[in-house]
Structures
1.
Amino acid sequence: MSETGATPRVYARIAGTGSYLPANVVTNDDLSKVVDTSDEWIASRTGIRQRHVAAEGETTGDLAYHASVRALEAAGVEASELDLIVLGTTTPDLVFPSTACLLQHRLGANGCGAFDVNAACSGFVYALSVADKFIRTGAARTVLVVGAETLTRMVDWSDRATCVLFGDGAGAVVLKADTETGILSTHLHADGGKKELLWNPVGVSVGFKEQEKNAGVRIHMTGNEVFKHAVKALDSVVEETLAENGLDRRAIDWLIPHQANLRIIEATAKRLDLPMDRVVVTVDRHGNTSSGSVPLALDEAVRSGRVERGQLLLLEAFGGGFTWGSALLRY
Ligand code: ACO
């Protein structure tokens, strides 16, 4: 209770961040030896210079584990203190159990709730939104939120239109209940009607064998259409976030966007009237790591000292589904 007798509002506040990239780096020049492409084409169209590729046997759960250990250390939180683990991924280790359950066991966070969220590249923002609601309602006080992917496992390395875009990586945050302002609002959207513009149409219920024969276990994408939809959806969710919080765009200290394509990031920054030196860009170093990309960028900005306590951060993402979303928070 506060001095006035009213119960103070509880926010989900980021107590620590962590990230992890596999050791193996594949540059644009490396790819130009495999498919008909060039560093110049990839860098000018996407901003990507290199990506990290998980070693044989290295899984999404492994990447998630390393990122989570770093986030827990940064937060000064023991795994045994966690009430919940929410993990965004579209490349789980297994069909079941969830990667969150595998992670829970490995961290020693026994007994707490643990589940995956599949929202493709928006997976971390979706997971963050779910965790925020658990904390706001008092159902949890300490939550580990992870975005982790090994997207290169379903890349067709002979398709130059997609193989140059993706990489593997993971990021994590520890959220704690706090009376100081943390996450202010989250906004989630989806449009399943556009699924065929970006998808991997293989799965359990439709039958692996038939689909594998027809399409192969790989990402299919109509890149220029995805590009247009991404820019439009992100514009709209950014406007929605500002309006909901009664904020002028100049209030944002940092834009921490999904790292898919530098041109998409620049379009959102322009909409916000933000100079690029207030936008966190890491896509050049790890390509599109799907759910991993927003927490990877956040962790880098925090550890480099660019993002400081008290600043206002706008996180956003767009991905297959389509799904898109945002989170506005005071760090
Ligand atoms: N190297 C060289 N040439 C290439 C390559 C390559 N790697 N890939 C495609 N091309 C060629 C095409 O074959 C085409 O050639 P043509 O004119 O002879 O037919 C030409 O380049 C232009 O192709 P477009 O697809 O029109 O190129 P575009 O400028 O749209 O760039 C890109 C393609 C980079 C994929 C872009 O559309 C994009 O980034 N879209 C967003 C996709 C995305 O980020 N998806 C990830 C998931 S969703 C998300 O995270 C936002």
2.
Amino acid sequence: MTDEQSILDWGGEALHIYRDEIADAWIIIAVHSTRRGPSAGGIRMKHYLGLQEAIQDAMKLSAAMTMKFATVRMSWGGGKTVVYLTRPLDVASREALLLRLGLHIKNLGGQYYAGPDIGTSSEDMDVLHEVAAPYIFSRTPATGGSGSSSIPTAYGVFAAIQATCRQIFGEADVSGKSILIQGMGNVGRFLAQLLHEAGASILFSETNPALVAELSETTDYRWVAPEHLFDTPCDIFSPCAQGGILDHSTISGLRCKGIAGAANNQLLHPERDADLLRECNILYAPDFVANLGGAMGITLMEAEGMEYEAAMLRVQTAIGTALDGIFRLAGELEIDTLDAAERWVGKS
Ligand code: PHE
């Protein structure tokens, strides 16, 4: 419920809720923090069970953005947009909705900068840019943007998997390691390629049957049926789809040694679940660290003018260094890695 207490617990600065009558949609722009700088975060566009769920998601996702930028000490804060669709939209209605969203972003006057997230693309950012410049990141290269944030996100997750391996096995090399990727979307697919090139064996789970068929034909990745997603033996489990997938019921079945993935808010009950993972001797790379590469890479390139190669390198080094520090702190203080990450970031 989005009552007074849950907004206080969230700790954010502003929650903008717009009703879009034309598309029967709701637009929620959550500005969690502008303490370090303007807020930035992606636009998630999808169906929800109801407005409460959509608002909760916007709040949680925006808070995660604050943690990402704070982890790498960048001068941005956390924000996020959720576009809650109540019915399917045709191409023209969807584009018109994007333009109306763009006006809301523009009206915030720089309090919030947008990028893509689940359900939106760089092409959508091109549309938004028509009305909301300069507050739009990650446009297509054809219109002067740096393209999809999935690429830097995947590079970052790759580095997170290496750091997790370094902690567990004593070396960062992923060759010969089995990595189970949940979700072969934009990030999952590119991540699989990077890992495969580095010699890892790839297991994957994916809900789109056409994609499963395509990958089974064209790659030597091994498909894992959804009912075995949480009990298939592997070295590293890499959640790269929706959030909230890890809780007591799924964690108790896990047969992996570490977790590092791109999904936001992987733990359903963060404190409890992080502690449980520690008890189960599964090394958890906190999601907001493992997946900060998208936001970091795009803002480095577009706001700070950094070249692509340099930005990808910086993303990987930053995530590797942060995780090394967090894992070390967790070991020294005998605490779980989420707790350690929050202390490392300086929150508590
Ligand atoms: N989807 C990105 C994330 O969750 C958000 C983002 C993309 C932010 C591009 C800025 C630029 O981290």
